[in-house]
Design a protein that fits this description.
Helix content: over 70%
Structural class: mainly alpha
Strand content: under 5%
Number of strands: 0
Shape: elongated
Order of helices and strands: HHHHHH
Number of helices: 6
Number of domains: 1
């Protein structure tokens, strides 16, 4: 007796297309933004530091350029996420954690330690907070789809 096991549709883990398109465009935009912001900070570190009244000594410039390098490197991850949002979701989880802890560190340095100027928070708005709605929605979508995929696999005899 042959027992035929049906397999779940390929789209079981796929994010529905209207939202998937939003995520893909957001990740492409994040890749472009991070590339430009990172290069700007690496090539012209004193410019932004001067705008927010942070002393531009050699050590401060070096640290700022390192931040620019980190931001720029994330552009590569965003690009891959834009190509295949379901496959590269762990990168967005890591990026989202950075977008949570970055503002926490800024608030700590600004309000508690009193070593960062408040107007540096403008970079927190554009580098972190601006992305929260789509990144959180994306992670919720991925988690929801992952749960459905696991349930369907269990229903079809796969563990």
């Amino acid at each position: 007796m042959d027992v035929k096991v049906s397999t779940p549709p390929e789209s079981a883990g796929m994010i529905p297309e209207p939202r998937r398109k939003i995520y893909r465009y957001t990740f492409y935009f994040a890749a472009i933004y991070n590339t430009l912001w990172g290069l700007g900070v690496i090539l012209f570190p004193a410019t932004l530091l001067g705008l927010v009244n942070i002393q531009t000594d050699p050590i401060g410039i070096l640290f700022w350029q390192c931040i620019g390098m980190f931001v720029g490197v994330f552009a590569i991850g965003y690009y891959f996420c834009a190509l295949d949002p379901e496959r590269y979701w762990p990168f967005i989880l890591i990026a989202t954690l950075g977008k949570i802890f970055g503002p926490i560190g800024f608030i700590y340095g600004w309000l508690y330690l009193d070593v960062l100027p408040g107007n540096l928070g403008l970079t927190i708005l554009t580098n972190d907070l601006l992305w929260w709605p789509v990144f959180f929605a994306y992670l919720a979508d991925v988690a929801s789809r992952s749960g459905k995929k696991v349930k369907e696999a269990n229903l079809h005899g796969r563990n």
